[in-house]
C-alpha cells in the first residue's frame, strides 16, 4: 500500500476494533535548532502575530463565519492583496503560526479551519469531498467579502486549493502548494471503504475521541516534520485540542480521507491555467516525489522547489525557506 496516509486509516480502524496500533520513533531533543543530514533547519520565526485570544491559545482573535448549515473558524490579519491559507487533513490553521506575521506585512492573510477540522463545525453526515470543500472555500470567501485571492495550501489543503482554482478560475490567481495530496494512490483503501460502508462506521468513530492523547498526537506529528524539536507540549496540545471538542471530529476525519482518494486527480488538474508553485521536502514521509512529479506533468504553468531536509510540513520545519519561496512566487509578474 502506498503512502503514509495509510497511518491515519490504520489508526481509525484499530480504535474502532478496540485498540490502537501504536508505533513511533523516539527522539532526543537539544534546543530549537536541529541538524538533519548536512543542512541545519532554521529555528521557527515565532508566532508574535498569533496573540492569546484564539481558540488555539496562540493566534489572532478568532472569527466565525456562519453559513447556512455550517460555521467556519478563521483569523484575518495584514493588508494588501488577499492570500488564503488552507491546512491539510487532521490539521488546522495552527500549522501556519510561524508564517502569518511575516505574510501579513505584504498580504491580507486569511487562514481558515476547513469544515470538519479545527474549530469549524463538524457534522458527521456532511460531505467533505473535493468538490464540497472547494465550494465551502468559495462560499466562505464570498460571505466575508473576498472575491479574488491567491491561495496557499498544505497537503490536502493543496488539493483543495488546486481544485478551487479549477472550478473558480475567475476568483483565484496564483496557487502555491506544499506537498499537495493529489494522487489517489496515497489512499488505496478507498476501494475497500466505499461511501456506503463509511456511513455505518461513523457512529462508532466517536470512540476514537477517548484514545486521542498527547502520545498518539505526538506519534502522528512526528511523521509530518523533520525537526523533532518542534514537538513541544504546547504544539502537541494545540494539535490535540480540536479533536477533544465536539463529537464529530473523527467521523469527519474518516470521511475527509475520500477527498485525497479522488480519482479525478491529478489528471483533471491539467486544465488549471493559473501559475502554480509546488514545494516539497525531501524527507516527506507522506507524499513521495513520484506523485509530485506526476502532478507537475499535468500542470501547464508550474514551478517546483525542493527543500533538502524538510518533511511533509515544511512550513513548520523551515518557515524561513517557505516564506522566501512563496513571497517570490506571489510577487513575480505573470
Amino acid at each position: 500500500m502506498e503512502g503514509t496516509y495509510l497511518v491515519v486509516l490504520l489508526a481509525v480502524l484499530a480504535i474502532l476494533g478496540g485498540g490502537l496500533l501504536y508505533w513511533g520513533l523516539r527522539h532526543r531533543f537539544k534546543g530549537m535548532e536541529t541538524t538533519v543530514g548536512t543542512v541545519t533547519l532554521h529555528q521557527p520565526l515565532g508566532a508574535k502575530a498569533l496573540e492569546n485570544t484564539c481558540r488555539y491559545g496562540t493566534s489572532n482573535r478568532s472569527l466565525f463565519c456562519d453559513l447556512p448549515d455550517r460555521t467556519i473558524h478563521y483569523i484575518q490579519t495584514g493588508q494588501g492583496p488577499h492570500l488564503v491559507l488552507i491546512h491539510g487533513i487532521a490539521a488546522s490553521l495552527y500549522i501556519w503560526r510561524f508564517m502569518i506575521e511575516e505574510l501579513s506585512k505584504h498580504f491580507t492573510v486569511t487562514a481558515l479551519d476547513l469544515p470538519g477540522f479545527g474549530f469549524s463545525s463538524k457534522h458527521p453526515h456532511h460531505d467533505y469531498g473535493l468538490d464540497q470543500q472547494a465550494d465551502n472555500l468559495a462560499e466562505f470567501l464570498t460571505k466575508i467579502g473576498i472575491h479574488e485571492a491567491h491561495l496557499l495550501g498544505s497537503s490536502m489543503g493543496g488539493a483543495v486549493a488546486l481544485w478551487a482554482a479549477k472550478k473558480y478560475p475567475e476568483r483565484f490567481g496564483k496557487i502555491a502548494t506544499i506537498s499537495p495530496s493529489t494522487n489517489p494512490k496515497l489512499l488505496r483503501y478507498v476501494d475497500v471503504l466505499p461511501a456506503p460502508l463509511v456511513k455505518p462506521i461513523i457512529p462508532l468513530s466517536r470512540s476514537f475521541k477517548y484514545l486521542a492523547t498527547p502520545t498518539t498526537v505526538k506519534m502522528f506529528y512526528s511523521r509530518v516534520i523533520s525537526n523533532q524539536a518542534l514537538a513541544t507540549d504546547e504544539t502537541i496540545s494545540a494539535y490535540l485540542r480540536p479533536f477533544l471538542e465536539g463529537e464529530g471530529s473523527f467521523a469527519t476525519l474518516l470521511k475527509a480521507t475520500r477527498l485525497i482518494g479522488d480519482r479525478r486527480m491529478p489528471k483533471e488538474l491539467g486544465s488549471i491555467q493559473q501559475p502554480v508553485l509546488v514545494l516539497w521536502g525531501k524527507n516527506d514521509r507522506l507524499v513521495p516525489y513520484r506523485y509530485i512529479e506526476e502532478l507537475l506533468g499535468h500542470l501547464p504553468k508550474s514551478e517546483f522547489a525542493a527543500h533538502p531536509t524538510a518533511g511533509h510540513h515544511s512550513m513548520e520545519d523551515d518557515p524561513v525557506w517557505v516564506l522566501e519561496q512563496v513571497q517570490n512566487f506571489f510577487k513575480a509578474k505573470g
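The longest strand covers residues 70-78. Strands lie at 35-36, 39-40, 63-67, 70-78, 82-86, 108-112, 149-154, 172-178, 276-281, 302-307.
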